[in-house]
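Sample A.
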Amino acid sequence: MAYLRAVFPPIALALILIFLLNPMVNRLERRGVRRGFGTALIYLVFIGVVAIGLSVLVPPLVDQVNDLVDRGPEIQEDAITAVEDLAVRLNIDLEAIGLGGLSGQPEGQTQDSDSLSFIEDWGGQLFAGAGRFATGAFHVVLNFILAPVFAAYLLIDLPKIQKAGLHYMPPRFRDELLPVIERIGNTVGAFFRGQLLVAAIVGLMSCLAFLIIGLPFWLPIGLLAGFFNIIPLVGPFVGGAAAVVVGGIEGGLPLAIKAALAMLVVQQIDNHFISPKVMGWAVRLHPVAVMIALLLGASLGGIWGMLLAVPMMGVAKILFVHFYETRVLGNWEYVGVVTGDSGVVKEVGEKSEIPEADLASDAKGRLPAKLAKAEKAAKAERLVEDLKEAKGS
């Protein structure tokens, strides 16, 4: 499992990049640009946009993070004081819940006798934490280096991979499986493209809202809210909680309430105006199903599992609905209905990249053979009914 978790993040990130960039590579290819050159061009543009964004965001972000680090001890003392005051108001015994030594040294412990042990323990924890941080940072950097490389190779060879997959697909299953694959591509591609755009808009609105109310460290908190908004139902709680905590420590209860209201306004705008327009019905999952998917993803794959949980639940829904419609209800017309933009197999308004000669379809080139047979049978039944009516008249 440990080896799988080490390999899984760069592959997952590479697939996300493919769903994001492949539609643009396809458009360049239709205009006569070779796929390899088009991929390199899209990469240059993508890197340029990221570099411009970082050049704008990094300087103020570094200033605010440095300020946060410098004021760390002061913020810690203010937080401890706020917790103790709240405990006194609510008549809570901090000793009973294990927080008796929150503001200082525990009772009965002398500084002279245990100071050396305390320093040794603190030093060991510091070095252990630094080691874990360095290892995690190395893995993150490695993932962000390997993922674009994987994605570039796959983007260039994607048509060949599709044709190879079609070649090895049993002919009797092609008519049924190709629309299912296209629906899966539609769902996953729409989810990631829409969710990233929504996260960027939410991050920008959060930063502006926190700046307007005068919240300290508004930029890192707003970016945090936008980043975690990639994971459905999680971002609002993470960003809102951080804003309320910082507001309560720095400005007391009034600023905490303002921060909560600001995040509430941002989320209402997102839920009622932005997400419905951008996301549409990409996944079409009930909120309860989304929460179950997030719990399963978190338990199996951590943050990466949560990121992929919702689109994978959408894929599972597509497979289940397809099985129910075709095998249980016998509705083979469902197979021929393909809509949306997969970003991999087909794009809106364009023909499939898979050659038509390889598809065992009817004369229209769209409906599978089973659907064509169903249409012929329906026409025959209508013809018999017309003949009966003609004889009766």
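Sample B.
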Amino acid sequence: MSGKTKKSISKRFRITKNKILMRRPQHQDHLNAKESGGQQRKKRKNKRVGKGTANRLIESRLY
């Protein structure tokens, strides 16, 4: 059964070579001047999505 890719999901998440779903951290766009350096550094790296959420997203046609 083929279907269209959900673009809103495919823009927010990436699948790695080892089938791990990654996302960008939240609250990182602007208004970060009041945060400490450690918090800003933590937001630079991608976060791993949990297995349950990842399975739901992959089932909803994230190719």
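B remarks: The longest strand covers residues 13-15. The radius of gyration is 14 Å.
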